[in-house]
């Protein structure tokens, strides 16, 4: 839902709270675990472990601040270029959290979803993810989406392929391929576009995250490394967002 400017106006995509607008959907590029570990002469795995703790804080902050959708970039389609050892550390960490923290998420009213290509991970993790999605499916406080083996380009390609199949089978005319239809064929079809994309670690790039969906997102790049990202930084990013004027191509009133 919501790739078109007219469906992404500020009234729909961010709520007026007590004074400042709270983004409905915050998407997070959690970067800097490696540098956090290196600066302490620790193995990269220690940075990822600390980063996973920051994820828990971030979920709590999002709920407290009234954010309804939180999408976390946990593993990109390009992160397979890392060593088997690092990929193994990350998948074990994710399994550990799903096993030990799922009940807490469930009690907080979190609905967990996965986008990307989770099928590329080993079977035990896939099964944990599937169970977690099923268990939390009817929760409504926060939709927490994990982007796992996710690539924005790959999502657009699979959407194009789905529409091409419909054209080939005669159920769709190519002239009926619109922004809405392509949007609906993406893995994010049941969530609003991100209002705010935050990247930690000082890098100022999207690294293939939510490319289509971020067309009109506000971008906030922060110098903090992901393991050091806490509620204060979350609130700071929300206050940057509240100070932005969104225009969606129009002329401000
Ligand atoms: C982000 O931290 C976590 C993942 C990409 C999985 P990095 O591991 O990329 O940290 P840096 O960029 O090397 O500091
Ligand atoms: C982006 O971080 C992906 C995630 C945070 C999961 P990277 O560290 O992989 O991005 P680049 O390589 O610096 O662009
Ligand atoms: Mg990085």
TrEMBL record:
User: Which keywords describe this protein according to UniProt?
Assistant: Magnesium, Metal-binding, Transferase
Entry cofactor note text? Binds 2 magnesium ions per subunit.
Which cellular component terms (GO) are annotated to the entry? cytosol
Q: Where does substrate bind?
A: 32-36, 48, 76-78, 80, 82, 199, 205-207
| Annotated residues for binding of Mg(2+) | 31, 218
* Protein's UniProt keywords contain Magnesium: yes
One GO biological-process annotation of the entry reads: polyprenol biosynthetic process
Top enzyme class, one word, equals: transferase
Identify its protein family: Belongs to the UPP synthase family.
The protein's name: Isoprenyl transferase
